[in-house]
Amino acid sequence: MAAAKKDKDFSPEIVALYCRQCLDAEERPQEGARQTKGFTARLVMLPCSGKVEAYQLLKILEQGADGVLLVGCPENACRFLVGSRRAEKRLTRAGQLLDLVNMGAGRLALKRAADLTTADILALAGQLAEQVKTLGPSPMKGDSL
Amino acid sequence: MIVAEWKPIPELLASLKGHKNVLLVGCATCVAECAAGGEREVLTLAPVLKMGLKDQGQEVNIITRTLERQCEPEFVEELSEIAPQVDAIMSIACGIGMQLVAERFIDLPLYPGVNTTSLAIREQAGLWTARCAACGDCMLGETFGLCPVARCAKSLMNGPCGGTRKDGKCEVDENTECIWRLIVERAEAKGRLEDLVKVRPSKNWSNSGHGGPKRMLREDLR
Ligand code: SF4
Ligand code: SF4
Fold first, then answer.
1. Strand-pair category, B21-27 with B61-67
2. H or E element in which residue A90 lies
3. What is the pLDDT of residues A57-104, one digit of tens each?
4. B168 and B204 share a domain?
5. Looking at residue A32, which CATH number applies to its domain?
């Protein structure tokens, strides 16, 4: 990686895209930025994780996010049947392209879960934040976001 | 459809070296169907190029457009307002569309973002296979609707070559059917195997690439 310095103490910005069907029935969907110890998460709700396209994952990173978390339903519990499987394929494709340009596929993560609270999603974002710290801040930082 | 595929990313990054404002232009017709040059691919490639160039220490602004058909001058004209703002164009349409853009914006360098490879069908989701080579003298009527020019690795006119694998695949590629095996099978199924041993007049190769660049003229349409 040419420009990015590996500063493990930085506070990663993680964009967390989550399928609304993953939420616990009692949980109110939440969106927007959450400052948490050690990282910031931006929550974005999707109608289905399969709605996401590879170019959207790439664009979020190009605009300076340090990582993108995609939360989808367990493979066999997708309401649209193949949504979370499609999500995985698109994330894989985006990851391959990120590796080719030295950004690192490790800036992307897919987690599958059900009955989540917002706190659970933030915890998953925290796991990605730890992974992203090993890659350092996004070299695209400062461009926008 | 005309099928194309992205050139390797390092090759694309090298071609944009030194440029600051690049117009990345796709086409919503054939190359969109083969997932190489439609709007989705334009939007995918743009951030990849931007990140790749940044990794090499180069800041670049990438403007994206997808034309309905890059092989028609009327649609290419839609770029005339944006073209003065860029110092290079990268096209991910087929070679036909690219040339029209290059000709219209002659002062700007035009970089091909894809390699145009074939005339093909989408055989399965995510799999495209060649069907026609635009040979200029279609022989599908003699080969039971299967094209040996595009689909036999040796473009044999009187196959099979003898190398057909036991499972019926071509000796050149284990994933491709021996098209001559399929032709023979279809002939047999129709009880017309004899047709394949008839002596046919030689094929007229001069109506396509072998006769120099093709030029088709219809006075009634001019
Ligand atoms: S015989 Fe020629 S025109 Fe006919 S399908 Fe084959 S390549 Fe195309
Ligand atoms: S095995 Fe069949 S398709 Fe392959 S080169 Fe020989 S005749 Fe052509």
1. parallel
2. helix A83-100
3. 999 999 999 999 999 999 888 888 899 899 999 999 999 999 999 999
4. yes
5. 3.40.980
Enclosing domain of residue B199: 136-211
For residue A103, the chain B residues in CB contact (below 8 A) are 51, 55
CA end-to-end span of chain B, whole Å? 26
**Is the CB of B48 less than 8 angstroms away from the CB of A139?**
no
Domain of B44, CATH number, reads: 3.40.50.1860
Average pLDDT, chain A: 91
B54–A59 C-beta distance less than 8 A: no
Reported pTM: 0.93
Q: Which residue of B has its CA nearest to A93?
A: B44
Residues B37 and B7 in one domain: yes
The string of pLDDT tens digits covering residues B38-92 is 999 999 999 999 999 999 999 999 999 999 999 999 999 999 999 999 999 999 9
B44: nearest CB among A55, A103, A139: A55
How many domains is chain A built from?
1
The ligand whose atoms approach the alpha carbon of B150 most closely is 1
Looking at the structure, do residues B9 and B70 belong to the same domain, yes or no? yes
In this structure, the answer to whether residues B99 and B145 fall within a common structural domain is no
Q: What is the pLDDT of residue A3?
A: 42
What range does the domain containing A44 cover? Answer: 2-133
Q: Tell me, yes or no, whether A145 lies in a domain.
A: no
Question: Is B156 close to ligand 2, i.e. is its CB under 6 Å away?
Answer: yes
pLDDT for A8 equals 67
Nearest to B22 by CA among B94, B79, B95: B79
Inform me whether the pLDDT recorded for B20 exceeds 90: yes
Contacts of B92 in chain A (CB under 8 A): none
Is the ipTM, as predicted for this complex, more than 0.90? yes
> Which of B41, B48, B58 should be substituted to probe chain A, the one whose Cβ sees the most A Cβ atoms within 10 Å?
B48
Chain A interface includes B44 (CB < 8 A): yes
Domain final residue, candidates B117, B145, B179: B117
**Residue A102: which of B40, B44, B55 has the nearest Cβ?**
B55
Contacts of B5 (CB under 8 A, 6+ apart): B34, B36, B114, B115, B117
Beta bridge partners of A32: A43
Distances (CA, A) of A111 to A22, A71, A75, A114: 11, 5, 10, 10
